[in-house]
Specification:
The protein is of the alpha+beta class and 448 residues long. It is built from 15 helices and eight strands. The chain has a five-stranded antiparallel beta sheet, sandwiched between helices.
Amino acid sequence: MAYTKIIPIRTRLDVCLNYVSNPEKTDLENALNYIGNMDKTGTLQSAFHCQIKTAFRDMQMVKRRWKKDSAKRVQGYHVIFSFKPGEVTPEKAHELGCELVARFLKDEYQSVVTTHVDKAHLHCHIVFNSVNLITGKMFRDSFANYFDGIRKTADEICRENGLSTIKPRGKSRSRSEYEADRRGDPTLRSLIRKDVDETIDRARDWNDFLQLLAKQGYAIKTAPRYKHTAIRRPGAARFVRLRSLGAQYTEEAIKQRILDRYTYGGKPPVPLPEKKVFRRKYRGNLPKRRKYKGFIALYYRYVYLLRGSRAGKQPRRVSRLLMDDVIRLDKFIAQHKAIAKYRIETSDDMITRCTEIKAQIQTLTDRRKDIRHEPEEQEAALSEIADRLRELRRDLRTLAAVEQTAPRVQEQLRQIDEQEARIRKEREEYERSKRSRRPAHPRGYTIH
């Protein structure tokens, strides 16, 4: 099946041209092991509005003519047009590559087309100038130019010639979301899935599910005004459709999951075995727990609150005030470990420890200079010193970051305490008002 890719050339355009025009990759005679029986020999190279041997010089002349020869600009673009093994011959692949250039670039850009036959899958390399030959405008590498330009044109050419094309499987994810999932870091969609799962476990039906989400601060768009239900997390910039979260988060799937909680597949729930609790009497005085103070207590609590967002770690919910720092949980864990390692509780402790670390770094640096003038058997000592210096410098950078972030962490915890106190006060007022409205008799009247 045909595959296309475009790569901006930001540094050496001549190196890219030399690579794609390499005779060892384009010579048919050198590729007999891959492409089977072929009697023809020669190189599959073509050039448009320039010469193969002088392509780089010709492209530079056009850049200078339009005053677009700055090294900071994109020099050109490299397009790869690849085919499924066995679908096309080398001559046919080269012909299709030239046709792609003719349709997409429309004789407005200098380009070089070469077909590499040194692999089992034949593929064309297309390198074209970033400056328009006629207008002098720069080519813009955008999603529209790729999906509606290169890829769409390549698929049309393949279908016209009876070749297979790649069919997309579902909606693609952004690079940042993919990398975050690979590292195990929380993302906006993972946090929404977690909230939706917890709400499903407490909801009685679909309407109750939407009401519970609204109580958590979610904005909701649903039927009959909207075709697809979409929700927006507090603090988020845009709405996310439930169906885009996965097959288990469509409206039908959520309704069925809520229903399964009560029906259990048509069977009554199996009672869980009763837990046996064994209590052991401790004779003697219990050891006293160490009470943390200062920076250690500050970061200990902050990391504990942030850990509630990690899947499978804690069932706790994370305050909305901490959403910005959830993504940077690993950084705060590293800072907390450094503070606990050096037992830093006050600002004076911070200054003292940083001074000690700098002194150790200077001592190890001087020692390394002395060892280098000694015999060769000191190589192991140099390696040990390098590892120790690396650790000390990392700790020094981490402690310097603590001095910058500690005031903001303290302010965040203060706001959380105020928020919890306000919620607790509102809950107490609600309970008190509910008791005052409760009738003295179950039937609503008082017996005298």
